[in-house]
Specification:
Number of domains: 2
Distance between the termini: 51 Å
CATH architecture of the largest domain: Alpha-Beta Barrel
CATH topology of the largest domain: TIM Barrel
Helix content: 40-55%
CATH superfamily of the largest domain: NADP-dependent oxidoreductase domain
CATH class of the largest domain: Alpha Beta
Radius of gyration: 20 Å
Largest sheet: 8 strands, parallel, barrel
Structural class: alpha/beta
Strand order of the largest sheet: 3-4-5-6-7-8-9-10
Number of helices: 15
Number of strands: 10
């Protein structure tokens, strides 16, 4: 495992994201976390040198599962990261106390203001949350204070300049580097000497399975590299990145990722050119940039399983009409035809996807 210097500690280059832990009934919305399988993965990660474990108050069951597992291990052997989401519960004192209880710890090493967006910056800045968490930091309840952002670059600058942050977490991957704002976000934080933790390095799994044409380009160059490892190696090449989070939900994923992080190297110039060629090929079929975060589903009045319908929509765009048959198997109370176009989903989407328009299109396609 490679490690990066962070202030007076060393953090593992690979961190474990705990939003997508294995479920008792895989693929069934609301299914509880399978503690046995999840703890096997977490234990394996820790045994192989991963010392950064990321969760959040709003990840259903995640803090409890992680906390229960970590009671078996020396508290000084790992770092916990969790987050306060003001839209989920604005009572930051209660949220922080509950996170400590769930995680079964007396302090959280890396604490973040969660999912900062253009439409919630003033709410966060005026809420009193930042002074409160600064107080908790003085008391030793928080070691490092940061934020995670899905905001525009202009708003990211405002967040970055609001105080002297210990670190920041952003979505960064090669696709968003070329076609999104990830490069500019990286530069904004680097210019301010704010260390970076990366989320979505494989874009919620979208960069783990490309189109056949794009994958062929990568496999021809390095047959022994997994498609996911290309994405991780790209982010490894950026010097201001301290931790790269991966939401590992199987032993196979963790084994592959550990192999990628066993050496320092990222991508050389030739490899980078190859990856950019594959990215361009993939772009032609990447229609909806949904990462499956599920923020859109929380406020849906008709309870549509939006990410699953968008997954079918993307497959339809790439492979044709037959892919629409998969919509029949989606576990969802509402369907695209039930969408009332209220816009709650679009307002909550970190990717700013025009979800109501797509639901209307899907409703027509599924008639």
């Amino acid at each position: 495992m490679i490690y990066k210097e962070f202030q007076n500690i060393k953090v593992s280059g690979l961190g474990m994201g705990n939003m997508r832990l294995p479920a008792v009934e895989p693929g069934v919305p609301g299914s509880p976390i399978d503690y046995v399988k999840a703890h096997e993965i977490i234990d394996n990660a820790l045994a192989n040198g991963i010392n950064y474990f990321d969760t959040a108050y709003v990840y259903t069951g995640s803090e409890e599962c992680l906390g229960a597992c970590m009671t078996k291990h020396d508290r000084d052997s790992f770092y916990l990261a969790s987050k306060f989401h003001i839209g989920s519960n604005p009572d930051y004192e209660a949220v922080f106390a509950e996170s400590l209880r769930r995680l079964q710890t007396d302090h959280i090493d890396f604490y973040l203001l969660h999912c900062l967006l253009d439409n919630n910056i003033d709410t966060y800045l005026e809420s009193g949350a930042i002074p409160y968490f600064e107080q908790k930091k003085e008391e030793g309840k928080i070691t490092y204070l940061g934020f995670s952002s899905h905001a525009s670059t202009d708003v990211l600058r405002r967040y970055a300049d609001a105080r002297k942050w210990d670190f920041a977490q952003i979505q960064l991957n090669y696709y968003d580097w070329v076609y999104g704002t990830a490069k500019e976000e990286y530069e904004i934080l680097t210019e301010r000497n704010i260390p970076i933790v990366v989320m979505e390095p494989v874009r919620g799994g979208r960069l783990s399975s490309l189109t056949p044409e794009a994958e062929a380009v990568l496999k021809a160059a390095h047959p022994d590299w997994s498609i996911s490892s290309w994405a991780l190696r790209f982010v490894k090449s950026l010097p201001n990145v301290k931790v790269i989070l991966s939401g590992m939900s199987s032993m196979e994923q963790i084994t592959d990722n550990l192999n990628t992080f066993s050496v320092e190297d990222g991508l050389n110039e030739e490899d980078m050119a190859i990856l950019m060629k594959a990215c361009e090929l993939f772009r032609s079929s990447m229609v909806v940039p949904c990462t499956g975060c599920r923020y859109c589903t929380e406020g849906c009045p008709v309870q549509i399983n939006i990410p699953e319908y968008l997954k079918v929509y993307n497959a339809y765009k790439v492979n044709g009409q037959h892919e629409l048959n998969a919509a029949k198997n989606i576990e969802s109370e509402g369907t695209p035809a039930d969408c009332i176009g209220c816009g709650a989903c679009e307002a909550a989407c970190p990717q700013s996807i025009k979800i109501p328009d797509l639901m209307a299109e899907m409703a027509e396609l599924l008639k």
